[in-house]
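[retry 2/3] Pectinacetylesterase: previous attempt timed out, resubmitting with same input.
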Amino acid sequence: MSKFNQMIFSLGLMLLVIPRVYAGNWQKIEVPETVMTIMDDDNNYKDIRPGCAFSHLSDEAGLPNKPFHFYYRKGSVSKTLIYLNGGGGCWNDATCLTSLALPVTPTTRPAYNPSIEDENNPAVLGGIMDATRADNPLKDWNMIFVPYCTGDVHIGSQDSIYTDPSGTINAGQPVLVQHRGFDNFMAVREWLKNSSDRTSTKQVLVAGSSAGAYGALMNFSRIHSIYPTTTKISLLADGGIGNFTDSFIKKVFRPNGPWKTENTLATWIPVIKNIGSYHALNFFATLATGIEHHFTKSKFAYVTTAWDSVQILFLNIMRKTDQGIDDPNQWFNVTPATALEWNLRMLLTLNANALLNSNAKYYIGAGTNHVELLDAFTENVFFTEKSAGGVYLKDWVNRLVGHNTPPLVNLMCSGSCGAPPLH
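[retry 2/3] Pectinacetylesterase: success.
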């Protein structure tokens, strides 16, 4: 891969978008890679520059370099789904660069997806985005699909320099990675603020899977603030329960960290202001319960499988890189102890969360699948999953967005919940 020069971006005060119609009546909204000045909810101006991890590179670099865009599908009711896609994460030299040399196979893949094209098209992802299914409770809704190509769980606004310790990527020379997930999200938010039907919207569901689950939760307040007080706004977080290590939390959320979250998080919400000081064992429970308590009129729903293989893998990657193990081939050796730890921490987190706040509920399915809302890993799983109390996941989501009859309740699989061999 050849060396590159960082592009110089001009100042743009208005968000210019170019819509194109794709399959399934999806419009592709292209966002220019120019600096935009927006006003945040704390009444301070922020400069954002949308883009993907490597969209500043030339084609000769050999890395995915398309600019950021998002998708919109107009529905027939005054309700809107805002979905943030997943695709891993990166926060150091090994995860951001070395892992890119890994092939995508059933057992290995890079730590994150820097491509705006691959696995980022709602027309082919199925599940909750499939408006052709009569049993999809959101089939008639307006839909916003936010792709993910920045490795920062939609909360980054920083260009960080990394060096591949293996010397494979760019011959071991420094590479700039654009962690601009927050900027991309805020560009979509500006578009939403200017949409003609925003003030008449009756209901909004902010959803996300995997990395998008964290982005949906931590950016929830910024969606909540742009809609009228009469709009019912709920959260649906899938495959992101936040079982991290202390070293990861301190690295990512420290001032001038790789994603520069001090400039992106909604720190006017008390629980988010102190996020970098939380212990790993209670990190997600503290964060989630604090946000839920701040928005008591909103419902918060969390979906996961009991032995989510990808979430377990990322706990393992954090542990390995904390120990200085930069060879990605060693990250996939997950011990039964790590799987069991993740499972126990997940159960403690979700049960504590539900106990403390009545507006928070969970659906814990059996098995190891990652992402239940889309066909990312298992085809039609959103419509066939019913291992938690015999209730279909699609019907449970319908309770979340419907008239609460029957009511939304906590549901969990039984027995060992399809545990993998733990020996």
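[retry 2/3] Pectinacetylesterase: The CA atoms of residues 84 and 208 lie 4 Å apart.
[retry 2/3] clearing retry counter.
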